[in-house]
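Whether sequence alone determines local backbone shape is best considered at the level of individual chains. The sequence in question and its structure tokens are set out directly beneath this paragraph.

===
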Amino acid sequence: MSSKTTTRMRSSLGPRQFASEIIATVIVLIGTTLCELGAVQDSYYANKKNILNVYVVKIGWLWTTIAFALIVLRQTQRNGKFATKETYTSILRYALATGWWYLFTQWFFGPPLMDRVFLGTGGYCAHYLTPDQTLFHPVSGEIILSSAVCRSSKGLWRNGHDPSGHVFLLTQAGTLLWHELQPTMTLAELKSSTLLKSVFTILIVFWWMLLTTTLYYHTVLEKISGLFFGLIFSSVYVLVP
């Protein structure tokens, strides 16, 4: 199938093209509503040490990269070669997605964007024994400006607005994988292709963990803001069709 055909299919699919954004939004709304109504009981997934959180979400971009590599392999098999416009465009979108993930969760000229939002809304790293006191870096003595450093110093992120990094990651990753799959995917191929089944397994786990995150963690606004920042990536599919 030519890249021109793929582009035409991508632009003509309508709502199906944005199914992942719709699914993520519905999941967040349902999970948040159940949480606020107190209709959620403790479960295995309420524990941050559950196996999917530790070995999937905590290294979520690695799993996203693996799933994306499987999608590229599928494109190569279908087109008979790697060097096609379709594959190069997909890799460009993956690079943009990785860049946005990195800026939001890892580094943005210092603390990542999510930490800058937290600090800018009055948040600080507090000592776990004296939560009203700011915790300083044990070596440099400076104020801690990173959530990762705060956790490693046994501190607590306090008071500010903390956009849900889990909701952000799972929303953006699901969006990337779905958009790269759906233009040429058929139900028959999904049933017969091991590659597609593998990618869909990762996608379903992401959606499941998105639900458990919204059921047990963060405030309403923190979940909504995590969703918002995750959905920003969708603009890539308008700019780089």
Remarks:
- The chain has two domains: 46-122+163-241, 124-158.
- The longest strand covers residues 124-127.
